[in-house]
Amino acid sequence: MKVPVKVDGRALTLSNLDKVLYPEYGFTKAEVIDYYSRVAPVLLPHLLGRPLTVKRFPNGVAGPSFFEKNAPDHTPGWVRRVRLPAPGSTKNRETIDFAVIDDLPTLVYYANLAALELHVPQWRVDEDGRALPPDTLVFDLDPGPPATIVECCRVALLLREVLQEEGLTARPKTSGSKGLQLYADWDCREKPSAYAKRLAQRLEKEHPKEIVSVMARKARPGKVFIDWSQNNPAKTTVAPYSLRAQERPTVSTPLRWEEVEGCEHAEELVFLAPDVLARAEKRGDLFGRA
Questions:
Q1: For 124-155, how does the pLDDT look when each residue is reduced to its tens digit (9 = 90+)?
Q2: Does the pLDDT value for residue 87 go beyond 70?
């Protein structure tokens, strides 16, 4: 069944609204679209100007999925697109036509495509579609079992102190999966990957039993991996307020530092779409720029 709608003056056709995209939870495509529509006021500022990579699940989280960077030819003409170089493209492209979600109609369009996860880089493009210098530094804290997000919180507090020493203010959010992520506004004092790597290595040296800065799986059991490599301009990180493709419709959720400091059980920092809507209504955007 197809339903024609208008979103801020744009004509869209929504389809398969009763399709269940999260079978374990019974969360339908209609609820995905509703979530993204209602969270848009706090989500859109974090997507604005950032080339988009989506992870689509046409038949739900239990079915096949695929990443999509290049906006297909059938993408509506009113969706903003920017053509950027694609060094190292796995499909041997010289350029990629990225979509940019700058408005609510584009967000709803992608939600209707079952683009559950929204991923963006740490840099934006200008009005002419040219890449700007990175404006965000990110650390992805990934726990190696049996460590959980509880251990990630302890590492986040250590990392917050180091960043404060460097004159940077960290903002925490859950990954929406099993880990935690810290962001800070970036002033391009040096290459962000090199800078982030140095801080991760420093903390690994100071806390070798809790922290690892290398990606090798064998080094990570029981420790928290500080993934500094997400600062590579070619990489993306899940956007704040994006859904994740877990059994339940979890969300990459901005946190208050009090929540990080007080976390004792992993489930305390699991937030589903309805939870995040309630948080946004009560607290606004906890991930507003420092």
A1: 999 999 999 999 999 999 999 999 999 999 99
A2: no
Mean pLDDT along residues 184-209: 97
The pTM assigned to this predicted structure is 0.96
Task: Please check the confidence at residue 290 and state whether its pLDDT lies above 60.
Answer: no
**264 CB burial (10 A radius; 0-12, 13-18, 19+):** exposed
Burial of 255 (0-12, 13-18, 19+ CB in 10 A): buried
What is the model's pLDDT at position 215? 79
Q: Which residues contact 57 (CB under 8 A, 6 or more apart)?
A: 21, 63, 64, 65, 114, 116, 245
HEC states along the chain? CEEEEEECCEEEEEECCCCEEECCCCEEHHHHHHHHHHHHHHHHHHHCCCECEEEECCCCCCCCCEEECECCCCCCCCCCEEEEECCCCCCCCCEEEEEECCCHHHHHHHHHCCEEEEEECCCCECCCCCECCCCEEEEEEEECCCCCHHHHHHHHHHHHHHHHHCCCCCEEEECCCCCEEEEEECCCCCCHHHHHHHHHHHHHHHCCCCEECCCCHHHCCCCEEEECHHHCCCCCEECCCCECCCCCCEECCECCHHHHHHCCCHHHHCCEHHHHHHHHHHHCCCCCCC
pLDDT at 220: 78
Residues 104-139: b if buried by 16+ CB within 10 A, e if exposed: bbbbbbbbbbbbbbbbbbbbbbeeebeeeebbbbbb
Is the bond leading into 64 cis (omega within 30 degrees of zero)? no
